[in-house]
Amino acid sequence: MSKCLEIRQLAVKRAGRLALTVDELSVEKGEVLAVVGPNGAGKSTLLLTLARLLKPEHGEIWFNGQPASAESALHYRRQIGLVMQDPLLFDMSVRENVASGLKFRGIPKSEIQPRIEKWLGQLGISHLAGRRASELSGGEGQRVSLARALVLEPELLLLDEPFSALDSPTRARLIEDLGRILPENGVTTIFITHDLNEAMKLGDRLAILLAGKLMQTGTPDEVTRKPIDPSVAAFLGI
To answer: HSE on the CB side for 15, CA within 13 Å?
Structure first.
C-alpha cells in the first residue's frame, strides 16, 4: 500500500503554548486511523492542522508523496472531506445539501445526480432526499453531512468527533454503517474521538494522544496487548 499522509517532527502552538507534538505518523491509502485520547489531548488541534486551518510551528506534512505546503491551501482542501461534530447544514433540502459542493466545484450536471443517489443510498437516507435540513434528527443530519463530504470523493476524510452528540442507538447504527462504507469505497480516513470503544470498532489502527503528544500507534490488538508506558495503559484501562 502507498501512503496518503506522512507527518514528521510536527509541533503546533495554540495561544502561545505547545499544544501538539507528533514525531512521526503515517496513514496508508484506504486506511481508517482512529486518533483517540481524553479531552484536551490535542486531537482537534491535529485535525485542524491537517485541514490547514492551523499553521504548525515546525515539521512537515506530506500528502500523496509531496509536501502539503507545495500546493495552495484551496487546492489542498479540495482533496479533503471534513465532517464536524455538528452537521452545519444549509437551510435547504437534503438533496441540495449533498449537491452543494459538487455544484461549487463545477462538476457536470450529468455526473451530479448519480453521485448524489449513490451516497444517499450508501448512508440509508434516500427517503429523506426532499426533506429540509431543519426537519432532520441529529443522526439524520450527521448522515447528510457524511454524504455531502463523501460525494466529493475526497483523497482524505477527516471526522471530528462525529458521533458525540448522538444518542447511543443512533451512534451504534452509524458506526456500523461507516464500518462497512469506508472499507468498501477505499476511503482514507482520520477519525477523531475520545471514546475508546468507537475507536476500536472503526479504526484499522489507533493513534493514542495524551497531553498533546502522540504516544503510540498500532492496531487495536497491538496497542492493548503492549501499551508503550503506564500513561497509555491507564488510558486504555489496563
So the answer is: 2
